[in-house]
Write a structure and sequence with these properties.
heterodimer, A: mainly beta, 6-stranded mixed β-sheet, 4-stranded antiparallel β-sheet, globular, B: mainly beta, 7-stranded mixed β-sheet
């Protein structure tokens, strides 16, 4: 079974600064999907960014970007120009692609990010 | 567009009472469906997932069960609730084709008293 590890239970960053959240995973698959989800105090899960393992180019979405290191099985999230609205729990998640025999979406334990004014 | 509905939003139930949480998806067919539980300040634990009607995979032994009576309906049940069943329950769906990100319902906060 796949496992996802987020080693930073809590982090804080000053408004307008940059912060990087870490995520590592374990899998024997060569093709898969990786995601970062955000859960604000409302507890609604919101997709932040996604990465297909077969793509070498790191995904970017406005102020959010990832550093995907496939050999190291690492998938970190960088938030630039942090805003107060970025305060939330951030979850790293792993999924096998369709046809891989399992559709499990496995989450890490999360990193609580606080943006300080 | 696709939408997911999960209800109720909050629920307070006595120990030993039954439970039924419902989740429905609109605007898509044959979705993968998931039930997760999130303890306070913790990560998401996958409870069940389903790739089709009547097909349920259970990830952890527990006091809960799941059913999928229709293609876009996923139900989480218990015959007798325990105090340890308290938590925040999330339903999600993903497509069986294309890039399969998961979309989540609003969640149900269950308190067993």
């Amino acid at each position: 079974a796949q496992t996802v590890t987020q080693s930073q239970p809590e982090m804080s960053v000053q408004e307008a600064e940059t912060v990087t959240l870490s995520c590592t995973y374990d899998t024997s698959e060569s093709n898969y999907y990786l995601f970062w989800y955000k859960q604000p105090p409302s507890r609604q899960m919101i997709l932040v960014i996604r990465q297909e393992a077969y793509k070498q180019q790191n995904a970017t979405e406005n102020r959010f970007s990832v550093n995907f290191q496939k050999a190291a099985k690492s998938f970190s999230l960088k938030i630039s120009d942090s805003q107060l609205g970025d305060t939330a729990m951030y979850f790293c998640a792993f999924m096998n692609p369709p046809g891989a025999g399992s559709y499990q979406l496995t989450f890490g334990k999360g990193t609580k990010l606080s943006v300080i004014p | 567009s696709q939408t997911i509905h999960q209800w109720p939003a909050t629920l307070v139930q006595p120990v030993g009472s039954p439970l039924s949480l419902e989740c429905t998806v609109e605007g898509t067919s044959n979705p993968n469906l998931y039930w997760y539980r999130q303890a306070a300040g913790r990560g998401l634990q996958l409870l069940f997932y389903s790739v089709g009607i009547g097909q349920i995979s259970s990830e952890v032994p527990q006091n809960l069960s799941a059913s999928r009576p229709q293609d876009r309906q996923f139900i989480l049940s218990s015959k007798k609730l325990l105090l340890s069943d308290s938590g925040f329950y999330l339903c999600a769906w993903s497509a069986t084709w294309g890039l399969t990100e998961a979309f989540f319902g609003q969640g149900t906060r269950l308190t067993v008293v």
